[in-house]
Write a structure and sequence with these properties.
Rossmann fold; seven-stranded mixed beta sheet; six-stranded parallel beta sheet; 17 strands; 40% helix; binds cobalamin; binds iron/sulfur cluster; transferase; rSAM_sf; methyltransferase
Length: 518
Amino acid sequence: MKILAAHPSSLMYTKIFLRLEPLGIETIAAELRRSGHDVRLIDLQVDDHAAYFREIESWRPDVVAFSCNYLANIPEIVDLAKATKDRLPDVFFFVGGHSASFVAADMIAHSDGAIDCVLKGEGEATVARLIEAAASDRDPASLIELPGVVTAAGAGPAPAFVRNLDDHHPARDLLRHRRKYFIGVLDPCASIEFSRGCPWDCSFCSAWTFYGRSYRVKSAEASVDELASIREPGVFIVDDVAFIQAEHGMAIGEGIARRGIRKQYYLETRGDVLLRNKDVFRFWKTLGLQYMFLGVEAIDEDGLKRFRKRVTLSKNFEALEFARSLGIMVAINIIADPSWDHQQFEVIRQWCLEIPEIVNISVNTPYPGTESWVTEARKLTTRDYRLFDIQHAVLPTKLPLHEFYGELVRTQQVLNRKHLGWRAVGALAGILANNLSRGQTNTLRMLWKFNSVFNPQLQLADHRQTVKYEMSTPPPHRDVVDPNTLYIHPARGRRGRAIDADTENFVEQTRINGKPAV
Ligand code: B12
Ligand code: SF4
């Protein structure tokens, strides 16, 4: 069968700082190709809708498989499904991915029959069977016999896990414009996955609820083999928390060193993991680790408590100190709460000015699939999916909305002043020249884009857009949530986490429902 795999457009933040390859849909595309289908891939972060429709009309696929990791992309995908069905009434249009899994039935309802089904959870496990089943019988009631399938007739059994992550590789070769992917100065940049899931359980996050609080790893051998097949000099490691288990990080690093692979890396981890596994990160620095993202979230203990991150402030600051000592460029995230007043923004602004790190400010946003979605007592001010991108306020702001955005953008401006524009050209001259000599201009071009994307007037205008599709309201408020009611993949308890007893204990000590950290 002819299958077009697609990834939706970029959201606000990714219009400047980075654009990364869509690893999820590449992995699905690989699985479909492996089962004998003719697969093409289009990424709307790089190509536009006109290119998508040209592909639909000229190639006339039998199936369109859309990736939906982000809530904010839902209206776009629903509209594309309708427009695709207008052009190809017999096409089988289905969707999968992180956010689609949490709001599957709503997406199907919005689409008025244009989306045939949503496949929840990690798609590799069932996607080939789904296509096979749909080829002979598209009856929504039959399709839901398969794990993870949701159709207009209801939902099937819980999604299945893949047996072994080593068996699955993204079809990187199907991506058409690989030179368009970059992060900061890593230009061009590929992505890779060494592990899946997260054993912690932060209240604002759905990474753990998606995988039933499991944590699995790719073997060091398979990870290094995959890395060796990547042509780009930059690599973004997509793991939610990199190198939770020191031995795994070390084994991959040793494989890289043995095979003489030279690349530059970006990864995301927690401050307490960084401090626990210092040797691993020190070793990775020698292998080419350039950037690290630490989810600090708040610079006061109250804020940390609110996000239920049981890592102490002093640990976070110690982690920053350690990362600095390694000479790694650190980016951190701070969550701005809609209840903030002028003073609170000012405190953060001053702090941002004092430290050398890149500080990203996001807005506290309850998402379906998180604990906050159920426990957050404040009323949503909007149910427009497009505003759920952690750059817009969807909860009531204490300041008038225009003042809130004014403060938010003024605080984000510090990043612009410190790390972008001419100042960056001066600091990064050598790297930029090297990138240019290889024909890579992504980094250079991002340096002056800030003001065209981060602008309070544009954010306010987003609130005034006509809302075509509205998210369902959150369930009735509860103070305590049974995590089993949030999971997409059912929990397998301790045996679902590939970590040793010491690490499990460490997670217990630092996770929200565990014992307090000392
Ligand atoms: C890498 C990553 C990114 C990359 C995106 C790369 C890309 N172009 O896809 C970058 C850094 C750019 C990014 C940015 C953002 N991200 Co992000 N990101 C992730 C992260 C850490 C891993 C995703 C990944 O690649 N995993 C590896 C691949 C193999 O898995 P996967 O994509 O999930 O795909 C599997 C399944 O989902 C499914 N699947 C996926 N597509 C399809 C399609 C079909 C047809 C089927 C059947 C199945 C299927 O099968 C795949 C294989 O098992 C996730 C956290 C997580 N654990 O999911 C957050 C996450 C998805 N991001 C999140 C957020 C909030 C953002 C931002 C909005 C943040 C911001 N500051 O603005 C931006 C918006 C990006 C945009 N669209 O423009 C949230 C999503 C929230 C939501 N519900 O909308 C997550 C869950 C993080 C979190 N902890 O909350 N992100
Ligand atoms: S540590 Fe917390 S915020 Fe980070 S991925 Fe895990 S659950 Fe989400």
